[in-house]
Amino acid sequence: MEPKVPRRRHTHQRGYLLTRNPHLNKDLAFTLEERQQLNIHGLLPPSFISQEIQVLRVLKNFERLKSDFDRYLLLMDLQDRNEKLFYRVLTSDIEKFMPIVYTPTVGLACQQYSLVFRKPRGLFISIHDRGHIASVLNAWPEDVIKAIVVTDGERILGLGDLGCNGMGIPVGKLALYTACGGMNPQECLPVILDVGTENEELLKDPLYIGLRQRRVRGSEYDDFLDEFMEAVSSKYGMNCLIQFEDFANVNAFRLLNKYRNHYCTFNDDIQGTASVAVAGLLAALRITKNKLSDQTILFQGAGEAALGIAHLIVMAMEKEGLPKEKAIKKIWLVDSKGLIVKGRASLTQEKEKFAHEHEEMKNLETIVQEIKPTALIGVAAIGGAFSEQILKDMAAFNDRPIIFALSNPTSKAECSAEQCYKITKVIAQQVSDKHLEEGRLYPPLNTIRDVSLKIAEKIVKDAYQEKTATVYPEPQNKEAFIHSQMYSTDYDQILPDCYSWPEDVQKIQTKVDQ
Q1: Are 449 and 180 in contact (CB under 8 A)?
Q2: Which of 72, 102, 113, 177 is catalytic?
Q3: Annotated catalytic, 72?
């Protein structure tokens, strides 16, 4: 097999600044020729090591640290210094590093964001920038942006209002876009919309990096969001993906409904979580050998994630032929006030759709015994909500209970996988490793890039069938084409493109023709 030729990348940068550019920096992997021609010779130790050895150094430093938070800081420093190496480390063992770069560790990182703030990442747009958001976008150094993850920090994971500290979420999520999906990190933009915070601790914290004021709401907030959406689409185009992340329930649904038919946008908490959860349910049905429309599903939680999953389940049941009204009746939700039933006071419009005729009930154990669900889904961020009794009851009602504890971070999960297996005694029935593997509901995390490639291939095929594709002529080998567009962690060739001419053409004239 022939060695892979490095991709050539042009840059005008030279000298010290080049070694401080994370997109171009190779650290000790710069060759002698590169060091001399780029005027960085002497700025690096006289040693030359490969990226593989650099990864080894990072891993050794990673392992000697005692806490995941310190490991997170190590990786973020690496991202700020050497982007290619950062993503090579992540993709070397995505199952190991994803919980550090994103949940659960990113939750603690957000809580401590102001304390450990070193180098700003992403774009900070405050409510006081109203009328000038387009100018703020011009401060960002990249002109081609294909994906934006934006939050206002009001509902970060299960941790509540973290205000400007919520920037850790867009940064971490976009790192996964690259590590898992192969997107170019320079084409990704993390954004925090700082409209204030209701978090008293942050308002009193002298180290807090955000606005020290109460949250702006109402028409002023809506106008701010409208301007942001218009400015982003004007600068980066209508095909720039705008992902809403960790907005409060009061805003999430209405903003999604407001923008979904006008911009390239989606809400990850409502739609992203729903697609993954329903995919897991459909995979579980391959084990239980029945249909989705045969299930009775109980949600612990009735926020964005729960309602998003519930709506998608209804759509999936309709696809099986069940009328929408009957599909809705198979879904029950429990919020902080108990079972959602008709006649209960203060139900939102979204919750009202899933309210059924039933007496009011508050205790989850009693509700499980009453409803006897075949599937139990936890998305309320109440740690340990699925008690031992609930898990035992689920096992008693069902030969193969479906239990999804989806809340994050881990401290907010309704139960652990180990508790679920042990108490329901499911693992005792799955004797062989082969059977355990057959019981897996999702592809192994370490195959996520391959899975992303396959999903992208299906989307591309659909785009050409629906006449919505923008790349022509149509690639014959779509998988190869997509793979060629995915971000590579291999170092680029950043020297000028040097090549030879015929010798007779290069001959220097020494005499003036008479």
Answers
A1: yes
A2: 102
A3: no
